[in-house]
Protein backbone atom coordinates (compact mmCIF):
# COMPACT_ATOMS: atom_id res chain seq x y z
CA UNK A 1 0.00 0.00 0.00
CA UNK A 2 1.39 3.33 -1.04
CA UNK A 3 1.15 6.09 1.58
CA UNK A 4 0.77 9.63 0.37
CA UNK A 5 3.33 12.25 1.32
CA UNK A 6 2.73 13.72 4.75
CA UNK A 7 3.29 17.23 5.94
CA UNK A 8 5.55 17.75 8.94
CA UNK A 9 2.53 18.61 11.09
CA UNK A 10 0.70 15.44 10.00
CA UNK A 11 3.77 13.35 10.77
CA UNK A 12 4.20 14.84 14.24
CA UNK A 13 0.52 14.38 15.02
CA UNK A 14 0.69 10.74 13.89
CA UNK A 15 3.71 10.10 16.14
CA UNK A 16 1.86 11.78 19.02
CA UNK A 17 -1.23 9.58 18.57
CA UNK A 18 0.99 6.50 18.39
CA UNK A 19 2.79 7.36 21.62
CA UNK A 20 -0.41 8.36 23.40
CA UNK A 21 -2.02 4.93 22.92
CA UNK A 22 1.07 2.93 23.90
CA UNK A 23 0.18 1.18 27.22
CA UNK A 24 3.68 1.55 28.68
CA UNK A 25 4.42 5.12 27.55
CA UNK A 26 0.98 6.39 28.58
CA UNK A 27 1.60 5.52 32.25
CA UNK A 28 5.13 4.96 33.52
CA UNK A 29 7.48 5.72 36.42
CA UNK A 30 11.04 6.96 35.80
CA UNK A 31 13.93 7.49 38.23
CA UNK A 32 16.61 10.03 37.44
CA UNK A 33 18.54 13.10 38.52
CA UNK A 34 17.23 16.66 38.03
CA UNK A 35 19.22 19.17 36.01
CA UNK A 36 18.48 22.36 34.02
CA UNK A 37 15.66 23.12 36.46
CA UNK A 38 13.61 26.17 35.48
CA UNK A 39 10.37 27.56 36.91
CA UNK A 40 8.58 29.56 34.21
CA UNK A 41 6.56 32.70 34.97
CA UNK A 42 3.49 30.76 33.77
CA UNK A 43 3.91 28.38 36.71
CA UNK A 44 5.05 25.47 34.53
CA UNK A 45 8.25 23.69 35.58
CA UNK A 46 10.80 22.52 33.03
CA UNK A 47 13.75 20.26 33.82
CA UNK A 48 15.89 17.42 32.50
CA UNK A 49 15.83 13.95 34.01
CA UNK A 50 19.10 12.08 33.51
CA UNK A 51 21.29 9.20 34.52
CA UNK A 52 24.97 8.59 33.71
CA UNK A 53 24.33 7.84 30.01
CA UNK A 54 21.07 9.50 28.90
CA UNK A 55 18.62 12.29 29.57
CA UNK A 56 15.04 13.24 28.75
CA UNK A 57 13.26 16.58 28.84
CA UNK A 58 10.40 16.89 31.33
CA UNK A 59 7.57 19.33 31.95
CA UNK A 60 5.38 19.66 35.04
CA UNK A 61 2.34 21.83 34.30
CA UNK A 62 1.19 24.33 36.93
CA UNK A 63 -2.11 22.50 37.44
CA UNK A 64 -0.17 19.36 38.45
CA UNK A 65 2.55 21.27 40.31
CA UNK A 66 -0.01 22.45 42.86
CA UNK A 67 -0.51 18.82 43.97
CA UNK A 68 3.23 18.21 44.39
CA UNK A 69 4.96 19.81 47.39
CA UNK A 70 8.52 18.68 46.58
CA UNK A 71 10.92 21.59 46.09
CA UNK A 72 12.96 20.64 43.06
CA UNK A 73 16.63 21.58 42.68
CA UNK A 74 19.45 20.54 40.39
CA UNK A 75 21.30 17.41 41.44
CA UNK A 76 18.26 15.95 43.20
CA UNK A 77 17.33 12.32 42.54
CA UNK A 78 13.58 11.95 41.96
CA UNK A 79 10.94 9.39 41.01
CA UNK A 80 8.37 10.78 38.56
CA UNK A 81 5.11 9.38 37.23
CA UNK A 82 3.66 10.53 33.94
CA UNK A 83 3.44 9.82 30.22
CA UNK A 84 5.47 10.27 27.05
CA UNK A 85 4.08 12.45 24.29
CA UNK A 86 5.16 14.71 21.46
CA UNK A 87 4.74 18.46 21.27
CA UNK A 88 3.69 18.66 17.57
CA UNK A 89 5.05 22.16 16.97
CA UNK A 90 8.65 21.18 17.80
CA UNK A 91 8.48 17.47 16.97
CA UNK A 92 10.23 16.61 20.25
CA UNK A 93 9.05 13.97 22.66
CA UNK A 94 9.20 14.63 26.39
CA UNK A 95 7.99 13.26 29.68
CA UNK A 96 4.86 14.98 30.98
CA UNK A 97 5.05 14.68 34.76
CA UNK A 98 1.91 14.12 36.86
CA UNK A 99 3.49 13.15 40.18
CA UNK A 100 7.00 13.57 41.57
CA UNK A 101 8.72 12.49 44.78
CA UNK A 102 12.25 12.52 46.17
CA UNK A 103 14.52 9.55 45.58
CA UNK A 104 17.50 10.80 47.62
CA UNK A 105 20.56 12.79 46.52
CA UNK A 106 21.64 12.52 42.90
CA UNK A 107 24.87 10.70 42.01
CA UNK A 108 26.60 13.68 40.41
CA UNK A 109 25.53 15.99 43.20
CA UNK A 110 26.87 13.46 45.72
CA UNK A 111 30.22 13.35 43.89
CA UNK A 112 30.33 17.15 43.74
CA UNK A 113 29.71 17.56 47.49
CA UNK A 114 32.22 14.83 48.41
CA UNK A 115 35.04 16.33 46.31
CA UNK A 116 34.21 19.85 47.50
CA UNK A 117 34.52 18.78 51.14
CA UNK A 118 37.76 16.89 50.48
CA UNK A 119 39.41 19.81 48.69
CA UNK A 120 38.25 22.23 51.37
CA UNK A 121 40.00 20.09 54.01
CA UNK A 122 43.21 20.25 51.94
CA UNK A 123 43.03 24.06 51.85
CA UNK A 124 42.34 24.36 48.10
CA UNK A 125 39.73 27.09 48.71
CA UNK A 126 41.75 29.07 51.25
CA UNK A 127 41.49 32.77 50.33
CA UNK A 128 44.95 33.48 51.80
CA UNK A 129 46.50 31.21 49.13
CA UNK A 130 44.79 32.95 46.19
CA UNK A 131 47.23 34.57 43.78
CA UNK A 132 46.85 38.26 42.98
CA UNK A 133 45.42 39.06 39.55
CA UNK A 134 47.82 41.34 37.61
CA UNK A 135 46.42 44.82 36.87
CA UNK A 136 47.80 45.04 33.34
CA UNK A 137 48.55 41.55 31.96
CA UNK A 138 50.62 41.64 28.77
CA UNK A 139 49.62 38.16 27.59
CA UNK A 140 46.56 36.11 28.55
CA UNK A 141 46.12 32.39 27.92
CA UNK A 142 42.45 31.52 27.28
CA UNK A 143 41.63 27.84 27.79
CA UNK A 144 38.27 26.99 26.22
CA UNK A 145 36.57 25.47 23.21
CA UNK A 146 37.75 27.10 19.96
CA UNK A 147 34.25 26.87 18.45
CA UNK A 148 31.99 28.01 21.31
CA UNK A 149 30.56 31.44 21.93
CA UNK A 150 32.73 31.83 25.06
CA UNK A 151 35.96 32.38 23.11
CA UNK A 152 34.32 34.97 20.82
CA UNK A 153 32.89 36.84 23.80
CA UNK A 154 36.23 36.84 25.65
CA UNK A 155 38.22 38.07 22.65
CA UNK A 156 35.68 40.78 21.84
CA UNK A 157 35.59 42.08 25.43
CA UNK A 158 39.40 42.13 25.84
CA UNK A 159 40.01 43.82 22.48
CA UNK A 160 37.30 46.37 23.22
CA UNK A 161 38.76 47.24 26.61
CA UNK A 162 42.49 47.33 25.80
CA UNK A 163 45.00 47.18 22.96
CA UNK A 164 47.90 46.22 25.21
CA UNK A 165 47.06 42.59 26.04
CA UNK A 166 47.87 39.73 23.69
CA UNK A 167 45.65 36.63 23.70
CA UNK A 168 46.83 33.03 23.34
CA UNK A 169 43.99 30.57 22.78
CA UNK A 170 44.73 27.05 24.00
CA UNK A 171 41.87 24.98 22.50
CA UNK A 172 40.32 22.16 24.53
CA UNK A 173 37.12 20.18 24.66
CA UNK A 174 34.98 21.52 27.50
CA UNK A 175 32.77 18.47 27.97
CA UNK A 176 33.08 14.75 27.49
CA UNK A 177 35.25 12.00 28.93
CA UNK A 178 38.65 13.28 27.72
CA UNK A 179 37.95 16.97 28.26
CA UNK A 180 39.31 17.13 31.83
CA UNK A 181 42.65 15.69 30.66
CA UNK A 182 42.84 18.28 27.88
CA UNK A 183 42.11 21.09 30.37
CA UNK A 184 44.85 19.82 32.70
CA UNK A 185 47.38 19.67 29.83
CA UNK A 186 46.38 23.17 28.70
CA UNK A 187 47.04 24.61 32.18
CA UNK A 188 50.44 22.86 32.18
CA UNK A 189 51.21 24.30 28.74
CA UNK A 190 50.36 27.83 29.88
CA UNK A 191 52.63 27.45 32.92
CA UNK A 192 55.49 26.24 30.73
CA UNK A 193 55.46 29.50 28.76
CA UNK A 194 57.49 32.36 30.23
CA UNK A 195 55.39 35.23 28.85
CA UNK A 196 51.93 34.29 30.18
CA UNK A 197 50.69 36.61 32.93
CA UNK A 198 47.15 35.31 33.38
CA UNK A 199 44.96 32.29 32.56
CA UNK A 200 41.23 32.43 31.79
CA UNK A 201 39.45 29.09 32.06
CA UNK A 202 36.02 29.36 30.45
CA UNK A 203 33.00 27.76 28.81
CA UNK A 204 29.35 28.65 28.32
CA UNK A 205 26.46 27.52 30.47
CA UNK A 206 25.03 24.03 30.65
CA UNK A 207 23.68 21.32 32.88
CA UNK A 208 25.71 19.83 35.69
CA UNK A 209 26.73 16.89 33.50
CA UNK A 210 27.80 19.24 30.69
CA UNK A 211 29.93 21.22 33.14
CA UNK A 212 31.27 18.12 34.87
CA UNK A 213 34.79 18.41 33.42
CA UNK A 214 35.23 21.45 35.66
CA UNK A 215 34.24 19.36 38.70
CA UNK A 216 36.98 16.76 38.20
CA UNK A 217 39.71 16.46 40.82
CA UNK A 218 42.59 16.48 38.31
CA UNK A 219 41.45 19.89 37.00
CA UNK A 220 41.14 21.27 40.54
CA UNK A 221 44.65 20.04 41.45
CA UNK A 222 46.20 21.60 38.33
CA UNK A 223 44.51 24.96 38.93
CA UNK A 224 45.77 24.93 42.54
CA UNK A 225 49.32 24.06 41.39
CA UNK A 226 49.40 26.76 38.70
CA UNK A 227 52.02 29.43 39.32
CA UNK A 228 50.03 31.74 37.02
CA UNK A 229 46.82 33.30 38.42
CA UNK A 230 43.63 31.70 37.08
CA UNK A 231 40.25 33.37 36.49
CA UNK A 232 37.37 30.94 35.99
CA UNK A 233 34.38 31.92 33.87
CA UNK A 234 32.42 28.70 33.66
CA UNK A 235 28.72 28.58 32.86
CA UNK A 236 26.15 31.19 33.79
CA UNK A 237 25.86 33.26 36.96
CA UNK A 238 23.96 30.53 38.86
CA UNK A 239 26.41 27.76 37.89
CA UNK A 240 29.10 26.86 40.42
CA UNK A 241 31.88 24.33 39.81
CA UNK A 242 34.87 23.03 41.75
CA UNK A 243 37.08 24.97 39.31
CA UNK A 244 35.35 28.22 40.40
CA UNK A 245 36.14 27.50 44.06
CA UNK A 246 39.82 26.64 43.44
CA UNK A 247 40.57 29.46 40.99
CA UNK A 248 42.13 32.69 42.18
CA UNK A 249 39.08 34.65 40.98
CA UNK A 250 35.62 33.49 39.92
CA UNK A 251 33.61 35.28 37.23
CA UNK A 252 29.90 34.54 36.68
CA UNK A 253 30.30 34.27 32.88
CA UNK A 254 33.10 34.10 30.28
CA UNK A 255 32.46 37.75 29.33
CA UNK A 256 32.70 38.79 32.97
CA UNK A 257 36.00 36.87 33.24
CA UNK A 258 37.38 38.98 30.37
CA UNK A 259 36.20 42.16 32.09
CA UNK A 260 37.94 41.14 35.32
CA UNK A 261 41.12 40.22 33.42
CA UNK A 262 41.78 43.63 31.87
CA UNK A 263 40.92 47.19 32.80
CA UNK A 264 38.91 49.37 30.45
CA UNK A 265 41.65 51.40 28.78
CA UNK A 266 39.28 54.06 27.47
CA UNK A 267 37.80 54.60 30.92
CA UNK A 268 41.29 54.74 32.44
CA UNK A 269 42.35 57.36 29.91
CA UNK A 270 39.20 59.36 30.62
CA UNK A 271 39.84 59.12 34.38
CA UNK A 272 43.46 60.22 33.92
CA UNK A 273 42.38 63.10 31.72
CA UNK A 274 39.78 64.18 34.30
CA UNK A 275 42.41 63.93 37.03
CA UNK A 276 44.84 65.96 34.90
CA UNK A 277 42.24 68.69 34.35
CA UNK A 278 41.36 68.72 38.05
CA UNK A 279 45.02 69.12 39.07
CA UNK A 280 45.58 71.75 36.39
CA UNK A 281 42.58 73.79 37.53
CA UNK A 282 43.62 73.51 41.16
CA UNK A 283 47.11 74.77 40.32
CA UNK A 284 45.56 77.70 38.43
CA UNK A 285 43.35 78.56 41.39
CA UNK A 286 46.32 78.41 43.76
CA UNK A 287 48.43 80.64 41.50
CA UNK A 288 45.62 83.17 41.18
CA UNK A 289 45.16 83.20 44.95
CA UNK A 290 48.88 83.71 45.58
CA UNK A 291 49.09 86.46 42.97
CA UNK A 292 46.21 88.25 44.70
CA UNK A 293 48.02 87.97 48.02
CA UNK A 294 51.23 89.38 46.50
CA UNK A 295 49.37 92.36 45.01
CA UNK A 296 47.67 93.03 48.31
CA UNK A 297 50.97 93.12 50.18
CA UNK A 298 52.66 96.28 48.85
CA UNK A 299 56.05 97.42 50.12
CA UNK A 300 54.49 99.76 52.68
CA UNK A 301 52.06 97.05 53.79
CA UNK A 302 54.86 94.53 54.20
CA UNK A 303 56.91 97.03 56.31
CA UNK A 304 53.83 97.74 58.40
CA UNK A 305 53.19 94.03 58.94
CA UNK A 306 56.83 93.45 59.89
CA UNK A 307 56.74 96.42 62.29
CA UNK A 308 53.54 95.10 63.88
CA UNK A 309 55.07 91.69 64.32
CA UNK A 310 58.19 93.26 65.93
CA UNK A 311 56.01 95.29 68.31
CA UNK A 312 53.97 92.24 69.24
CA UNK A 313 57.18 90.28 69.80
CA UNK A 314 58.56 93.11 72.02
CA UNK A 315 55.40 93.08 74.13
CA UNK A 316 55.64 89.36 74.47
CA UNK A 317 59.29 89.64 75.51
CA UNK A 318 58.42 92.26 78.14
CA UNK A 319 55.64 90.06 79.41
CA UNK A 320 57.96 87.06 79.61
CA UNK A 321 60.60 89.22 81.38
CA UNK A 322 58.09 90.35 84.01
CA UNK A 323 56.96 86.79 84.54
CA UNK A 324 60.54 85.55 84.87
CA UNK A 325 61.41 88.41 87.25
CA UNK A 326 58.38 87.66 89.43
CA UNK A 327 59.18 83.98 89.47
CA UNK A 328 62.82 84.70 90.40
CA UNK A 329 61.68 87.04 93.23
CA UNK A 330 59.48 84.31 94.65
CA UNK A 331 62.27 81.79 94.36
CA UNK A 332 64.83 84.21 95.92
CA UNK A 333 62.52 84.80 98.91
CA UNK A 334 62.10 81.06 99.29
CA UNK A 335 65.87 80.55 99.22
CA UNK A 336 66.38 83.43 101.71
CA UNK A 337 63.84 81.97 104.15
CA UNK A 338 65.42 78.56 103.82
CA UNK A 339 68.89 80.04 104.48
CA UNK A 340 67.70 81.96 107.55
CA UNK A 341 66.12 78.82 108.93
CA UNK A 342 69.36 76.93 108.41
CA UNK A 343 71.39 79.72 110.09
CA UNK A 344 69.02 79.74 113.06
CA UNK A 345 69.32 76.00 113.37
CA UNK A 346 73.13 76.18 113.15
CA UNK A 347 73.23 78.94 115.81
CA UNK A 348 71.06 76.88 118.09
CA UNK A 349 73.50 74.02 117.77
CA UNK A 350 76.67 76.19 118.04
CA UNK A 351 78.57 75.39 121.31
CA UNK A 352 79.66 79.03 121.60
CA UNK A 353 76.04 80.04 121.95
CA UNK A 354 75.78 77.67 124.89
CA UNK A 355 78.78 79.33 126.54
CA UNK A 356 76.90 82.60 126.66
CA UNK A 357 74.26 80.91 128.79
CA UNK A 358 76.83 79.92 131.51
CA UNK A 359 77.92 76.60 130.09
CA UNK A 360 81.65 75.79 129.72
CA UNK A 361 83.77 73.48 127.63
CA UNK A 362 86.30 71.25 129.38
CA UNK A 363 89.32 69.85 127.54
CA UNK A 364 92.38 67.82 128.46
CA UNK A 365 95.22 67.68 126.04
CA UNK A 366 92.87 69.21 123.39
CA UNK A 367 90.37 66.42 123.94
CA UNK A 368 86.78 67.22 124.94
CA UNK A 369 85.95 65.91 128.43
CA UNK A 370 82.34 64.76 128.72
CA UNK A 371 82.70 62.44 131.74
CA UNK A 372 84.56 62.50 135.09
CA UNK A 373 85.79 59.03 134.26
CA UNK A 374 88.17 60.63 131.80
CA UNK A 375 89.92 62.53 134.63
CA UNK A 376 92.22 61.72 137.55
CA UNK A 377 93.72 63.69 140.37
CA UNK A 378 96.29 66.38 139.54
CA UNK A 379 95.30 66.38 135.84
CA UNK A 380 95.70 69.74 134.18
CA UNK A 381 92.54 70.69 132.38
CA UNK A 382 91.47 73.68 130.25
CA UNK A 383 88.09 75.27 130.96
CA UNK A 384 86.76 77.55 128.22
CA UNK A 385 84.34 80.35 129.02
CA UNK A 386 82.66 82.70 126.63
CA UNK A 387 85.19 85.40 127.42
CA UNK A 388 88.40 83.44 128.25
CA UNK A 389 90.16 80.26 129.33
CA UNK A 390 91.16 78.96 132.76
CA UNK A 391 93.86 76.31 133.30
CA UNK A 392 93.12 74.27 136.38
CA UNK A 393 94.41 71.27 138.34
CA UNK A 394 92.05 68.51 139.43
CA UNK A 395 92.09 68.18 143.25
CA UNK A 396 89.15 65.86 143.84
CA UNK A 397 86.86 63.70 141.66
CA UNK A 398 83.35 62.76 142.78
CA UNK A 399 81.14 60.54 140.69
CA UNK A 400 77.43 61.19 141.05
CA UNK A 401 74.22 61.55 139.05
CA UNK A 402 74.16 61.51 135.31
CA UNK A 403 73.12 65.10 134.72
CA UNK A 404 72.80 64.57 131.00
CA UNK A 405 69.64 62.45 131.38
UniProtKB/TrEMBL annotation:
<dbReference type="GO" id="GO:0005737">
    <property type="term" value="C:cytoplasm"/>
</dbReference>
<dbReference type="GO" id="GO:0006308">
    <property type="term" value="P:DNA catabolic process"/>
</dbReference>
<dbReference type="GO" id="GO:0003676">
    <property type="term" value="F:nucleic acid binding"/>
</dbReference>
<keyword id="KW-0378">Hydrolase</keyword>
<comment type="similarity">
    <text>Belongs to the XseA family.</text>
</comment>
<feature type="domain" description="Exonuclease VII large subunit C-terminal">
    <location>
        <begin position="124"/>
        <end position="324"/>
    </location>
</feature>
<dbReference type="InterPro" id="IPR012340">
    <property type="entry name" value="NA-bd_OB-fold"/>
</dbReference>
<feature type="domain" description="OB-fold nucleic acid binding">
    <location>
        <begin position="6"/>
        <end position="101"/>
    </location>
</feature>
<keyword id="KW-0269">Exonuclease</keyword>
<dbReference type="InterPro" id="IPR003753">
    <property type="entry name" value="Exonuc_VII_L"/>
</dbReference>
<protein>
    <recommendedName>
        <fullName>Exodeoxyribonuclease 7 large subunit</fullName>
        <ecNumber>3.1.11.6</ecNumber>
    </recommendedName>
</protein>
<comment type="subunit">
    <text>Heterooligomer composed of large and small subunits.</text>
</comment>
<dbReference type="InterPro" id="IPR020579">
    <property type="entry name" value="Exonuc_VII_lsu_C"/>
</dbReference>
<dbReference type="Pfam" id="PF13742">
    <property type="entry name" value="tRNA_anti_2"/>
</dbReference>
<dbReference type="GO" id="GO:0009318">
    <property type="term" value="C:exodeoxyribonuclease VII complex"/>
</dbReference>
<dbReference type="InterPro" id="IPR025824">
    <property type="entry name" value="OB-fold_nuc-bd_dom"/>
</dbReference>
<comment type="function">
    <text>Bidirectionally degrades single-stranded DNA into large acid-insoluble oligonucleotides, which are then degraded further into small acid-soluble oligonucleotides.</text>
</comment>
<keyword id="KW-0540">Nuclease</keyword>
<dbReference type="GO" id="GO:0008855">
    <property type="term" value="F:exodeoxyribonuclease VII activity"/>
</dbReference>
<dbReference type="Pfam" id="PF02601">
    <property type="entry name" value="Exonuc_VII_L"/>
</dbReference>
<keyword id="KW-0963">Cytoplasm</keyword>
